[in-house]
Amino acid sequence: MLAAQRQELILEQVRRTGGVRVADLVESLAVSDMTVRRDLDVLEHRGSLRKVHGGAVAPEGPRTEEPGFEAKSTRQEDEKHAIARAAAGLVEPHSAVGLSAGTTTALVAEYLADTPGLTVVTNSLHVAEVFHRTARPDQTVALTGGFRTPSDALVGPLALASIRGLNLDTLVLGVHGMQERAGFTTPNLMESETNRALVEAAATLVVAADHSKWGTVGISTIAPLDRCDVLVTDSGIPDAAHAALSERVGRLVVTDVRPRTEQG
User: How open is the CA angle 166-98-118, to the nearest 5 degrees?
Assistant: First the structure.
């Protein structure tokens, strides 16, 4: 059995039961203790599970737990760069684009920095800073007002007032989690409301989410899976998730992950 097949079986059991024991995996997979622990190391590095003494458990924390921007920026870095590059390629020059807050969308902004004629609407301080640094004279960037969240999103009545009434060609949305029943979710109720306003303003919804977001459920749903026109993820997405997403979203784009030095 290939390593990828073993790891998929381990993940399926974690999703089904909430956790696995090393001893049980050694027996069921007919491999050594060292092989199982190596597989768990790989899966933990991807953010797919969390190792504990004697085994591993699902990575999901409380549904209102919201890590800060800096903490999230170090997770799945190569995957996020690959996803951001592909998502940026879906944005047309001279269009109106919304970029929600998040570490992946901040990278999308990096890849869009030289795109001519963009009008950008964002509730992300980091996204606005990217465009401020490049300062193309043919780009217009509108930063909403609002209260600042741990993930550096601007939310609340001022943010909503800035977004409502706008008509965007494309929204690139970052999410905390995605699941077949709950859809695209966030742990912050006010950020969910702001993101829903961005979704309503957009003709085309592009969701940028790495494989570790699958199965994670925040307290509030931003949009159901079938509202998404294009979902951009990475090749670490489990087979079961690939099948579920392919049935629900308009188009599923799976990027090949390479070290950033090779991504150009």
Answer: 95
One-letter amino acid for residue 240 of the chain:
A
As a whole number of Å, the CA-based R_g of the chain is 19
- Separation CA 245–CA 77 (nearest Å): 22
pLDDT tens column, 148-181: 988 789 999 999 999 999 999 999 999 999 988 8
Which helix (H) or strand (E) covers residue 184, if one does? strand 183-186
β-strand 140-143 against 220-223: which pairing, if any? Answer: unpaired
Beta partners for 47? none
Closest CA to 44 of 69, 19, 64: 19
pLDDT digits (tens, 9 = 90+) for 26-81: 999 999 999 999 999 998 887 777 787 888 877 655 544 445 545 454 456 789 99
**Nearest of 92, 243, 94, 106 to residue 180 by alpha carbon:** 243
Global pTM?
Answer: 0.73
Angle at 89 between CA 85 and CA 91, to 5 degrees: 125
Segment 250-261 mean pLDDT? 83
Report d(CA 35, CA 40) in Å as an integer.
Answer: 9
- Could you identify the residue written with the tokens 């905390």? 176
Rounded to a whole number, what is the largest CA-CA distance in the chain? 63
SS3 150: coil
Q: Which residue(s) pair with 205 in the sheet? A: 171
